[in-house]
Design goal:
Strand content: 5-15%
Strand order of the largest sheet: 1-10-7-6-5-4-3-2
Helix content: 40-55%
CATH topology of the largest domain: TIM Barrel
CATH class of the largest domain: Alpha Beta
Number of strands: 18
CATH superfamily of the largest domain: Homocysteine-binding-like domain
Radius of gyration: 26 Å
Oligomer: single chain
Largest sheet: 8 strands, parallel
Shape: globular
Structural class: alpha/beta
């Protein structure tokens, strides 16, 4: 039986290596991102076959059909709802053809994704209609000769169970892999934790339970661990994205390296994954690196130190007048520290930490608004309490995303009435990566335009429509800057727009390569014919561990950690956090003449590390 042959393979010690992304490679080969990828099974079978063969050559033992969106509802968006059977059947045949001359046994998995329409009670689609749509797709995949079914990137447990039930009724001999995707806080869109997902899918009869897409390998490892602990007798799969994507030149680029994926292949194996592969952004090169790692018995398994989401549960403190503008004008070296608001209504921990940082020498506390699109207390409240009750100056992060023009101006007037004088205007994180991926994500105004509105309208006593607001606001406004951007000229053009709008200072992405700042300033002067005079507070992130460093280097766009720093962190072992502090101190000292301040972003709320950076830098005479 097909199921038994597949399960026998999973019972072996070595995990089954799956393929990587299909859409990423098709887009690289010139297919438009909004095209009907599934239709290419009929229109461009040569292209699909080429991708499959690349993964087989890279060492994959399982390849997925190009049918992720080939259900009647998704295909209807392209007028293809009557071609469900043809597209799925041909998709299966193409994948089988690609495995014909493989040097090893390669399983073909029929890929099935969500229907793209909510199922009752959370949507308008009836359960029986959803099951019928899944059954239609599954029947065609089975006719095409797939060895198993893989249901992937589902965010609703109820929907994937409907798909699983349809599989058991339509193709009972096919084994089924069920994979969920999770938001940034390691929950499904409906709030299910990994353990609950694993239990419910196990009870529903899934042969393999797993996680795909979501974030990069670090998050997948956390989720996989929780699933395995909840259901230790189960079989699991892990297929992460290649980090968080960044738009470069109209294309989505993923930062995770092949070496990083090779390490995580061994990590997933150690956690207990029976199937390991890749999702968005992964390529045959990633799969080949994982193959090499899994096949090398001498290669040590990395220490499993799963990064945790360490949330501050509370925070708060005071100040009636802003001093930041005066310090910037006088050329003082400014120290700012980022502190996220809590996910509760208590501010006690934030207050204690802010007081410690102020005593260490911090000039101002940055308070972000819903960082990584996760629900937190309003930053207005945190800023207001810290300033009005404890005398600690703050910078309110003000993202344009999720606000229309009416709300933007009303919110700015309200913040000013509460005593806020410093703003950091940015786009904000997209809601799709956070707690509520379906939340409204629209905006009426870009950051550069909002800077202009504040500095050239509200600070002159009028609103966008030209109506008086009475007394003018007196905001000092900061903007975002990425000095390590791949498209440096584009970043400089954007910075010029923000400066022309009236930006008073910039907060940069974390910097680990001092030459990055020098290169950016030099290129700015080449393009503009004048030096960059805008005060820059350089991003400084004290590294906490080797896993933290690898995560930043591989999964966060715009952050690059040099090999010598990475080696220092690796060699430090248990003292990695203190070495991370020393690296941060050295960076601040070295860049003193090129920037006007440090924007310290502590990892996991480790504010004591930020305090050490501030104290040592102060003693060393940076001020």
């Amino acid at each position: 039986m097909l199921r038994q042959a597949f399960l026998d393979r999973l019972a072996q010690d070595a995990p089954l290596l799956a393929d990587g992304a299909m859409g990423t490679l098709l887009h690289e080969r010139g297919v438009a991102i909004d095209a009907a990828f599934d239709e290419l099974n009929l229109k461009r079978p040569d292209l699909i076959l080429d991708v499959h063969r690349a993964y087989v050559a890279a060492g994959a033992e399982l390849i997925e059909t190009n049918t992720f969106g080939a259900n009647r509802y998704k295909l209807a968006e392209h007028g293809l709802e009557t071609r469900v059977a043809d597209i799925n059947r041909e998709g299966a045949k193409l994948a089988k053809l690609a495995t014909m001359y493989a040097p090893r046994k390669v399983f073909v998995a029929g890929s099935i994704g969500p229907l793209g329409i909510g199922i009752a009670p959370y949507g308008r689609l009836k359960s029986e209609d959803a099951r019928a749509a899944f059954a239609e797709q599954i029947a065609a995949l089975a006719e095409g000769g797939v060895d198993l079914l893989i249901m992937e990137t589902f965010s609703d447990v109820h929907e994937v169970i409907e798909a699983l039930n349809a599989a058991r009724e339509t193709a009972p001999d096919l084994p089924v892999v069920t994979q969920m995707t999770f938001t940034a806080d390691d929950r499904t869109m409906l709030g299910y934790l990994p353990g609950r997902v694993a239990r419910e899918l196990s009870e529903a009869g899934a042969d393999v339970i797993g996680v795909n897409c979501s974030g990069g390998p670090a998050q997948i490892a956390r989720i996989l661990t929780a699933m395995e602990q909840s259901n230790p007798q189960g079989k699991f799969s892990a297929m992460p994205n290649a980090g968080l994507p960044e738009a470069v030149g109209g294309r989505m680029m993923y930062p995770a390296t092949t070496g990083y994926f090779a390490d995580y292949a061994l990590t997933f194996k150690a956690i207990g994954a029976s199937i390991i592969g890749g999702c968005c952004g992964t390529t045959p090169e990633h799969i080949a690196a994982m193959r090499s790692a899994l096949d090398d018995p001498s290669r040590p398994i990395p220490h499993i130190a799963i990064l945790e989401n360490l949330d501050e549960v509370d925070e708060g403190i005071t100040a009636t007048h802003s001093e930041l503008a005066d310090k910037l004008k006088r050329g003082k070296f400014v120290i700012s520290v980022e502190m996220s608001p809590p996910r509760s209504h208590s501010l006690s921990r934030m207050i204690q930490s802010a007081e410690m940082l102020r005593d260490a020498g911090a000039d101002v506390i940055n308070v972000p608004d819903s960082p990584t699109a996760r629900m937190r207390m309003s930053p207005w409240a945190a800023c207001n309490v810290m300033q009005s009750q404890f005398g600690i100056e703050t910078i309110l992060h003000f993202p344009t995303r999720g606000r229309n023009l009416l709300r933007v101006q009303g919110d700015l007037l309200g913040a000013h009435a509460l005593g806020q004088r410093n703003l950091f205007i940015c786009m904000g994180d997209p809601t799709k990566i956070g707690d509520y991926p379906e939340a409204m994500d629209n905006f009426d105004i870009a950051p550069s335009a909002l800077i202009r509105l504040v500095k050239q309208r509200l600070n002159l006593g009028i609103d966008q429509a030209g109506n008086t607001i009475g007394n003018p606001t007196v905001y000092t406004v900061g903007c975002a800057l990425n000095m390590g951007a791949q498209e440096m000229d584009k970043e400089i053009d954007l910075l010029v727009k923000k400066m022309e709008g009236g930006a008073d200072f910039a907060l940069s992405q974390p910097v680990f390569v001092p030459q990055q700042v020098e290169r950016f300033r030099k290129r700015y002067e080449e393009l503009r014919g004048e030096p960059l005079l805008l005060p820059i507070l350089m991003g400084v992130m004290p590294l906490y561990s080797v896993r933290h460093a690898q995560f930043l280097d591989n999964e966060i766009p715009g952050i690059n950690i040099p090999p010598d720093i990475m080696k220092r962190i690796e060699d430090a072992g248990e003292d990695a956090a203190q070495v991370g502090v020393r690296v941060a101190q050295e960076l601040v000292r070295e860049m003193r003449d090129f920037v006007q301040g440090a924007y310290i972003i502590p990892a996991f709320g480790k504010f004591e590390l930020a305090a050490q950076v501030i104290e040592t830098v102060s003693v060393a005479g940076v001020y």
